[in-house]
């Protein structure tokens, strides 16, 4: 039961240095580890009665009890609720049994078994369907405007693919982060008008772009918005605003690509049922975009079902050429492909799609072309470029993180403490990196964090136009592109909107030029001279709206027999019934207390450790990423406490898949 070191692309790669005020990512805090309440054996067996057949767990009662505990921890505390999860997973998994490609009847029947919410329950969906019907009947050209992140790119690829398959004249516009910024913009509108389009459809954007929508429609370009971001005070006056937050839509957690798929579903239902045959083949994109966008993944919800079905399609090799080749490029060869899960998407596939949009030297429309083409040679070239872009992104992120932490250490030396909301700005930071940087710092310092990149007026999309009298002043003006992450503490977009309203007297519009996002993440554009106002506004806001304590997720259970309870194919099958994991359905973490350290070794050419532990008479191997500096301490310790997760790896020589454990956090030298 061995586990190989974390492959390239996973969150490792260098020793973690200790900064004052930071929470080290591998260090288990002192004190009692929070655990979910353990169920008794009769309670576990009542949740999963013996007559229920579970694939891969037929002769392993430990795996069945593990699954029952995991489901109870997620709120499924009755046999009926557990049966609903199992039935839902089985329905999604049945995509693997479909003939490929399926015919319309087969595809429609399978989708019906998923029991998804009716797409017409999305507000204004009937208006969107009717306008698309008119466009198709009149053979009008349609332009689709997307976003440059993984959710936006997969949304755009999905709609372009679908409209091409049904014979529409469709064009695509992918914004550039620096040239256009986030959201619907003038360049997309101008492209649509130049191509003779009469209808513009947004994906993963548009909800906060009322002015741009009004501009487009004034010029004869009708607009349909498909989006999932939180709502502004006033919605755009578009033909339709298809957003799960509008009205009382029952589907929880849909991202941009999921909303785009629902539009396609409604078009199949209302215009031509023969188009249903195309819907299963779009779910590879839904899986990638949904997981990469870190949306809640509660079992049985619509987004979980669609993403799970897409993952099963990817495991079967039922994916477009670009995704197949990307999987091989990140080490998901034939032996590992059946084990693809949310971690592979979140840490390997998603970052490569995001990387191009984060770097100004490359254009995200190249990624769209890669996702759409059937040309293997072109795909191979683009996948190589994506990998290089991701390596460059990692390098720039690492350098920016070192600069940010040096600034925070200096702040601690000056003030003795850090502010409740971190705000760091540097003109040299790439705009595409600041969101990642904010996320790393928010996790490490356990508080909301905002990072900003400096730009000139000319690079800020929709920036106010200077008159002749103030042109020289405007040319010297700086703007900031900001991106923030909550770190699980507070509602970031609500906080920023309150700060924006606090300064509503500025130009009559507020503090920000543009603002959008969700509770965990937000982005904005800010005039250079207003940076100090932002910092002051945030400090004042937390005085009246306290942030609360940082979250500390409980472990699933304390393992008494780690070598038997985890790290086996049967236990992997139990954990896999939760796939895909995400917020609301975290990757299972388990607590081991007082394990005896038999041996510890550094991994060659990596800052990682291999530990041989013994607990309750069984020896087992675990790996710790980025903790090589702990080698002397662990060698001198007799016992450790650890939080572990299950990991899979592939032997490079034999191709064999190994089931094992990885340490997420540990505590050394505690007296047991």
What are its keywords?
five-stranded parallel beta sheet, globular, five-stranded mixed beta sheet, OB fold (Dihydrolipoamide Acetyltransferase, E2P), Diaminopimelate Epimerase, Chain A, domain 1, 672 residues, alpha/beta, inorganic pyrophosphatase (n-terminal core)
CA(first)-CA(last) distance: 26 Å
Biggest β-sheet: count, sense, barrel?
5 strands, parallel
- Provide a count of the helices: 22
Helical content stands at 25-40%
CATH architecture descriptor text of the largest domain: Alpha-Beta Complex
Radius of gyration: 25 Å
> What is the C-level CATH assignment of the largest domain?
Alpha Beta
Q: Would you give an account of this structure?
A:
40% of the residues lie in helices and 17% in strands. It has helices at 41-47, 61-73, 79-93, 104-113, 125-137, 150-165, 186-194, 210-218, 256-270, 283-292, 302-315, 321-329, 342-358, 365-372, 376-415, 434-445, 471-476, 492-502, 531-544, 562-565, 569-576, 631-636, and strands at residues 141-145, 169-173, 197-203, 222-226, 240-242, 422-426, 449-456, 478-485, 512-517, 521-527, 557-558, 590-602, 609-615, 618-624, 639-650, 657-668. The longest helix is centred in the middle third of the chain and has 40 residues, at 376-415. It is globular and about 75 Å long. α6 (150-165) links the parallel β1 (141-145) and β2 (169-173). It contains 22 helices and 16 strands. The chain has 672 residues and is α/β, with parallel strands linked by helices. The chain starts with 40 loop residues before the first helix and ends with a strand. The strands form 3 sheets. The chain has a 5-stranded parallel sheet with strand order 2-1-3-4-5, sandwiched between helices. It has a 5-stranded mixed sheet with strand order 6-7-8-10-9. The chain has 3 domains: 97-378, inorganic pyrophosphatase (n-terminal core); 421-463 and 471-544, Diaminopimelate Epimerase, Chain A, domain 1 (Roll); 553-668, OB fold (Dihydrolipoamide Acetyltransferase, E2P) (Beta Barrel).
